[in-house]
């Protein structure tokens, strides 16, 4: 945010705005075409939703569905726990807007920097390593239980995937499955309509990504959260702008772990979609696709640009390049070699 911008700053922003609008206009026709690589491989591009109203934008760009529907909008800034009915209605509206495309609803990812007023006050030295994500459900089991009920009920209106954040262990998934079964039995006993859901885990901690193969026995799908994975893997606060240069998707450790997780999920026949910011970044998306990722999820406003990108790549060539880069020792070199190798065929004009 720029307070009282100078004349030249105003010009700069105006210019940027005009260019962004021109670019969006030029991309509009891509809504009707498929994101297929030059060598004929279909990549899925889903949308990330922050609010139910984003569903319209996702439908307008013809996203393949929703790869991540964050549900924190239901609680942030609220003084009381959200009712099951309110949640059900919000989910149902999104599902109906996008059906028959699948909608991935992520259960509350609270803690860290999102502490709604109704949570018990907790003093923590390191909130991002504290009561965050699925750990909070232990503290407030009703909050989780009601959300699962709302998701099961909404699933009667279209295909739904239930996703849990911050998974670290297999026990967490078995516990989750138990809550789903209890909620399912309750709804059935009450005669309330419900639908089937796929159950999935976020891969966003080093522990989870290392045991992808084990988790795959217990979940139906994975969602790779690069925002947190980079933060926890490299021990770099994702929100600290001064540390931005250390927050490096191209770090050789990430390439290895992501590549191995993709293979492990593939062997188990479990789909894996990337829903972190890296999926919206042109070079980041190429790195992920080169490592075997076939589904990306990004903000609705970024879907068409990613479609265009995918239609300009030769997947075989990209995979060969990534295989070579797996032995390179620095993130900086990996990134510059990618840029040098791809610039001639792929439009990377916005990438420095
Ligand atoms: C992530 O960590 O990459 C992610 C998608 O989840 P969030 O940004 O909501 O933590
Ligand atoms: Mg996350």
Labels describing this entry:
binds phosphoenolpyruvate; single chain; 352 residues; 11% strand; TIM Barrel; binds magnesium ion; 8 strands; 45% helix
Q: What would your notes on this structure say?
A:
The protein has 352 residues and is an alpha/beta fold. It has a single domain, classed as Alpha-Beta Barrel (TIM Barrel), CATH 3.20.20. The chain is built from 14 helices and eight strands. It has an eight-stranded parallel beta sheet. The two termini are 23 Å apart. Bound molecules: phosphoenolpyruvate and magnesium ion. Residues 165, 204, 225, 227-228 line the site of magnesium ion.
CATH homologous superfamily placement: Phosphoenolpyruvate-binding domains
Main pleated-sheet profile = 8 strands, parallel
The level-1 CATH class = Alpha Beta
- Unreliable stretches covering 5 or more consecutive residues: none
Kindly report the CATH topology: TIM Barrel
Order of helices and strands: HEHEHEHHEHEHHEHHEHEHHH
What topology does this entry show?
Blueprint: H1 7-27, E1 44-49, H2 54-60, E2 66-69, H3 84-98, E3 103-106, H4 136-139, H5 141-154, E4 160-164, H6 170-190, E5 197-203, H7 206-210, H8 212-215, E6 221-224, H9 226-234, H10 252-267, E7 272-274, H11 282-290, E8 295-298, H12 303-311, H13 315-325, H14 331-342
Parallel strand pairs: 1-2, 1-8, 2-3, 3-4, 4-5, 5-6, 6-7
The chain binds phosphoenolpyruvate (PEP) and magnesium ion.
Phosphoenolpyruvate binds next to helix 9.
């Amino acid at each position: 945010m720029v307070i009282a911008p100078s004349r030249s700053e105003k010009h700069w922003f105006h210019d940027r705005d005009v260019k962004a609008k021109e670019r969006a206009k030029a991309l509009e026709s891509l809504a009707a075409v498929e994101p297929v690589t030059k060598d004929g491989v279909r990549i899925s591009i889903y949308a990330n939703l922050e609010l139910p109203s984003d569903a319209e934008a996702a439908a307008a760009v013809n996203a393949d569905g929703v790869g991540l529907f964050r549900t924190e909008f239901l609680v942030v800034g609220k003084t009381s726990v959200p009712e099951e009915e309110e949640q059900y209605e919000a989910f149902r509206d999104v599902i109906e807007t996008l059906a028959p495309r699948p909608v991935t609803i992520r259960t509350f990812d609270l803690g860290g920097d999102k502490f709604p007023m109704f949570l018990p006050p907790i003093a923590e030295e390191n909130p991002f390593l504290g009561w965050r994500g699925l750990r909070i459900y232990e503290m407030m089991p009703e909050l989780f239980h009601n959300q699962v009920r709302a998701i099961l009920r909404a699933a009667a209106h279209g295909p739904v995937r239930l996703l849990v954040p911050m998974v670290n262990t297999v026990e967490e998934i078995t516990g989750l499955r138990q809550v789903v079964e209890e909620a399912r039995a309750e709804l059935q006993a009450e005669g309330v309509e419900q639908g089937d859901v796929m159950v999935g885990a976020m891969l966003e901690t080093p522990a989870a990504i290392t045991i992808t193969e084990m988790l795959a026995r217990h979940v139906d799908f994975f969602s790779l959260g690069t925002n947190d994975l980079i933060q926890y893997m490299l021990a770099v606060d994702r929100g600290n702008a001064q540390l931005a240069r250390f927050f490096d998707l191209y770090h050789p450790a990430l390439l290895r772990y992501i590549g191995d997780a993709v293979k492990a999920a593939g062997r188990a026949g479990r789909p894996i979609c990337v829903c972190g910011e890296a999926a919206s970044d042109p070079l980041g998306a190429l790195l992920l696709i080169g490592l075997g990722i076939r589904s990306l999820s990004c903000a609705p406003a970024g879907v068409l640009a990613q479609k265009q990108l995918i239609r300009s790549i030769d997947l075989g060539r990209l995979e060969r390049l990534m295989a070579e880069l797996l032995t390179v020792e620095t993130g900086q070199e990996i990134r510059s070699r990618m840029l040098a190798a791809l610039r001639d065929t792929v439009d990377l004009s916005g990438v420095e």
